[in-house]
Amino acid sequence: MNNLQTKIDLFLSGTPEIPRDIIFTASQMFNEKLSRFNYKKLPSKSGLPSLSQIGKPMCQLQASKLGWKEEDKPINFKMMMTYGDMTEVLTVAVLLAAGIEITDMNKKVKLPTKVGDLYGELDLVLQLKLNDYHQVGEKSVWDIKSASSWSFDKRFASYDELKKQDDFGYCCQLFGYAKAEGVKAGGWIVVNKGTGEIKVIEADPGDQEHYINLIEQKALQISKTTEKVHFEKLYDDKLETYYKKSTGNRKLQAPCIFCDYKFACWEGLKYVKNPVSKAGNYEYYTNMARRYETVLR
Length: 297
Ligand code: SF4
Known about the structure:
- By secondary structure, the chain is an alpha+beta fold.
- Helices cover 36% and strands 24% of the residues.
- The protein has helices at 3-12, 20-35, 58-65, 77-97, 149-153, 159-164, 170-181, 208-224, 262-265, 290-296, and strands spanning 101-113, 116-127, 139-147, 184-192, 198-202, 238-242, 245-251, 270-273, 282-287.
- It starts with a helix and ends with a helix.
């Protein structure tokens, strides 16, 4: 177990208490975070994605650059975002109370690339005493993520799993921040929104060159994306099966399900109740077999 995880677990076991001065610091952070409830996302002036976006699938970045219509945000969107911010405040309070040295927080950074600067805001720079990848007292960049139980167990099962399932571009984001700040990549402090568990996932700083090259390639391709013909759809829909038999319907799979441009990208896309499963979940259908189209009318 790494040093950071051990400290967090030691603090939380038994009867943890957050000292008053840390509660005061956290309350100021809370004020700042809550005021972000009113922020509006502005398009980047350079036309390049932010460091938190650059690792996303290229087709999503292209759709954004081309100004495709984003789907409307769900009614709970702002609440979800604010929950994430509140989780970050609580996690910082726990880290401080556990004796972890935070040298920078919510710091704006800039990563120059060959085609322009990419901007972002890192969560934390920590000065850890020792861990698998860092020397005593070396600084490293860490990101706090609040995750669903599924994401906590699967996407954040380990660093290797995260690299395999990185549809949200967390690795490019972290290594981009680390390079911009001139320190090593630390990793992610992941909080399970459902249970409150905290898991530390360490990144391998040896992957830095790979991810910085990837960021350069993506920034270059985005800078060249100026017309619809440059767009390349990277994912397919899939045939639906029920008890191993085809229903004839086709539906979206990840990462399209989470993409803001899915309705602009997939003509005729429908978000309707699954007509065959008893669970009756809503799903994104690109094509419905005729017999189900009439059921759904
Ligand atoms: S809906 Fe899927 S294929 Fe289309 S832009 Fe989004 S991720 Fe890419």
